[in-house]
Specification:
Blueprint lengths: L14 H17 L3 H13 L17 H11 L1
Helix pairs in contact: 1-2, 1-3
């Protein structure tokens, strides 16, 4: 194990995780034809977005900035 530290937070404490969850819920609503719910989830997800995804996280095994960025593009 490295000499760094580990930050333990709940899933809803990390904007990237909340964004992913809201985007997934928006896609489900979209498939079900619920346009109001779809718009609501996508709007909430995009309001969390500021700058490049996880640009200051460095390399991790848990999060991929590229994957999160492509999810944002899909929501747009």
């Amino acid at each position: 194990m490295g000499t760094g530290y580990r930050l333990n937070i709940s899933r809803d404490g990390l904007d990237a995780a909340v964004f992913g969850d809201l985007a997934a819920e928006g896609r489900i609503a979209q498939r079900n034809g619920n346009l109001f719910e779809e718009e609501n989830h996508f709007d909430q997800a995009l309001r969390l977005w500021r700058g490049d995804a996880l640009f200051d996280m460095g390399r991790t095994t848990s999060w991929s900035p590229g994957a999160t960025g492509s999810t944002r593009t899909a929501v747009l």
